[in-house]
Amino acid sequence: MRGPSTRHDVRADQGPRRRCQNAIDGCPPQHISDTLPSLTRSSMDRDTAKQAAAEAAAQLVRDGMCVGLGSGSTTAYALEFLGRRIQAEDLDVQGVPTSFATERRARTHGIPLTSLDDTPSLDLALDGADEVDDAFRLIKGAGGAHAREKVVAHQADRFVVLVDPTKEVSRLGTQFPVPVEVLPMAATPVMNALDAAGATPTLRTADAKDGPVVTDQGLWIIDARFPDGIENPDALNRRLCDRPGVLDHGLFLDMATDVLVGRPDESVDHRSAS
Ligand code: 5RP
């Protein structure tokens, strides 16, 4: 299993740069930040940390690379930084998106796109995560893109995960459920199986639509919460992969090669697997 071996502080040295113009969560201007309640301040800290990790990730891309483009708000910042680099340095870079949302964002930022049909081997994949433990194991899929994200990450020589410190956990499953993408007709049997495995399964429902979230593949997502976290991620992985009707799930084991943890002070802790 891959695990952390080296740590480099890649404290960003570009000065007061940052502040993505299209910040996903929206950053209030600095001059009003002093009066903001602490909750807002902590979300600003998180946003700064996400941007720090995202910028460090974009800096890993080299001319001529094919890059897997993950999904979620942290990766969205990386796309913006990468788009700026492509423009400023005239880089020849192509990206493979992991969701419709990322495809649209990448186009907005001028990142040329390709597919695994044309480019099945990738140099790098950049993506966020919902949880990461000390052994580089992840839970992903809060945005419902985990199936494509796993395919793309698997095709990459390096799978770089970018997170803020709230994503670091000592045990997987303590903060986020494991999303399980299923054929709609298999939802009830899979929920029963998850229940038998000690999870509390719920069908993910949409905010701006009545009914279930429908993924980019036209499938449904069951979120499996484990009240005390996941005791044996490998066993759960096997159990889910063996289950008919499951397309894929959000446990990413033995996949990440690098984890970039951005901090609110704009430093970045870069951990590389052995
Ligand atoms: C989407 C994902 C995201 O990468 C994950 O949810 C992290 O998102 P964010 O950077 O917005 O916290 O797995 O399926």
TrEMBL record:
Similarity remark: Belongs to the ribose 5-phosphate isomerase family.
Name listed for the protein in its UniProt record: Ribose-5-phosphate isomerase A
Residues given in the record as substrate binding sites: S71, G72, S73, T74, D127, G128, A129, D130, K140, G141, A142, G143, K167
PANTHER family noted in UniProt: RIBOSE-5-PHOSPHATE ISOMERASE (PTHR11934:SF0)
Native species: Salinibacter ruber (strain DSM 13855 / M31)
Gene Ontology terms describing biological process: D-ribose metabolic process; pentose-phosphate shunt, non-oxidative branch
Gene3D superfamilies in alphabetical order: 3.30.70.260, 3.40.50.1360
Record keywords, A-Z: Isomerase
Pathways per UniProt: Carbohydrate degradation; pentose phosphate pathway; D-ribose 5-phosphate from D-ribulose 5-phosphate (non-oxidative stage): step 1/1
InterPro entries: NagB/RpiA_transferase-like, Ribose5P_isomerase_typA_subgr, Ribose5P_isomerase_type_A
Catalytic activity, reaction form: aldehydo-D-ribose 5-phosphate = D-ribulose 5-phosphate
GO cellular component: cytosol
Source species taxonomy: Bacteria, Pseudomonadati, Rhodothermota, Rhodothermia, Rhodothermales
